[in-house]
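The material for today's practical consists of a large collection of protein records. Getting from the letters to the tokens is the skill we practise here. To make this concrete, we reproduce a full record directly below:
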Amino acid sequence: MNHEQAGCCRSRRALLAGTGAVGVAALTGCATYGQPAAAPAPPAAPTAGAGPSGSASPGDDADPGAPALATLADIPVGGGQIFADAGVVVTQPTEGTIKAYSATCTHQGCTVTSVSDGTIVCACHNSVFDIADGSVRSGPAGAPLPAANVTVDGDAIRLA
């Protein structure tokens, strides 16, 4: 091999080494794919009448200036309703029991998509939560939905 050919080989080796380094850097950037999102912030301290589980019952103290999210009749027994703009899902597991949770899935931060048959579903990756306590029933989510504070003032359900 002559001197000119040796310089050629070193350049080829340098090119291949550089390409390998770029590939490793690209793979490192994808290392977090599929990992859970950062844990959501803990829920605010409960207000008078709203327990740590996010439950509320008629007659709880409410901020009369806060707009109502819904009425009791809007929340089906055994189901619920998602209020994406307010970031909450309100459920009624049993007649007269109102619960509220963050509408943000604890798996990767998608907004939950439906409430029916006693469950809250996030269609992003099929995490399923219980409407009575926000616990994970199935799916990749590893943590329950955090409780949210709501109050019931007469027939009106409001954020606390």
In short: The chain has one helix and eleven strands. The chain has a mean pLDDT of 75. Residues 54 and 104 are 15 Å apart (CA to CA).
